[in-house]
Amino acid sequence: MKFITPSLETERLLLKKGNALDYEKVYEYDFKKLRNINGEFESVKQDKKYIEGYETYADRIDGVFDWIIYLKNSNIPIANITANREDKINNAIELSFNTHPNYWRHGYTTEALICVLNFLFEYKYDNVFCGYSEGNIKSKNLINKFGFQPYKTIYNSWIKDGISITDYRTILTKDKFYNLYKKT
Questions:
Q1: For residues 58 and 124, what is the distance between their CA atoms, to the nearest angstrom?
Q2: Predicted confidence (pLDDT) per residue in 144-158, tens digit
Q3: Each residue of 91-128: pLDDT tens digit?
Q4: Please, where are the H alpha helices in 45-153?
Q5: Where is 159: in which H helix or E strand?
Q6: Which segments in the chain show pLDDT lower than 70?
Q7: 87: buried, middle or exposed (CB in 10 Å: 19+, 13-18, 0-12)?
């Protein structure tokens, strides 16, 4: 089933469907190199070919919500949040997110995630999954801050520079989220 990504709003942010130029701005840097996996942390410009079609992803694939996050006062695109990969057994959907490094440590990602989680839990889901790879401490810390709990460890999930990487999948229940964030 095709989902229509709704526009959402917080005090400082607008969350809505983006266009190709917005994705280019958000993904200016290669996020694979910013995740600090295997100690690699570099600000390397993204090859624009890698993100071609990002703006139509939700239109082409069933069961996808895809938001670009904009600063409300300037309409500058700063981040992306995607919800996809429904899990009907757990009545869940999986979240992934990226924030342009110029906008790290301002609380924008937290603010946007609270808004999206509220939407997803009110929409129909009882659980939300989120994952991170070994070494990606920024994502791990943010996921833990939200109260996500360990769900599954995937050893040897993928290989980076000849080294096997472990992925961690976490889960957040609707009740836990509402207890922590009181439907803000």
A1: 18
A2: 999 999 999 999 988
A3: 999 999 999 999 999 999 999 999 999 999 999 999 99
A4: 57-60, 108-123, 137-145
A5: strand 149-160
A6: 30-42, 44, 183-184
A7: middle
pTM tops 0.90:
no
- Pick among 3.40.630.30, 3.40.190.10, 3.10.620.30, 3.30.70.380: CATH of 8-181: 3.40.630.30
Q: Between the CA of residue 7 and those of 17, 139, 143, what are the distances in Å?
A: 7, 24, 23
* Distance in angstroms (rounded) separating the CA atoms of residues 12 and 15: 10
Pull the structure tokens for residue 63.
């069961």
Going by their DSSP bridges, the two strands 65-71 and 92-99 should be labelled as: unpaired
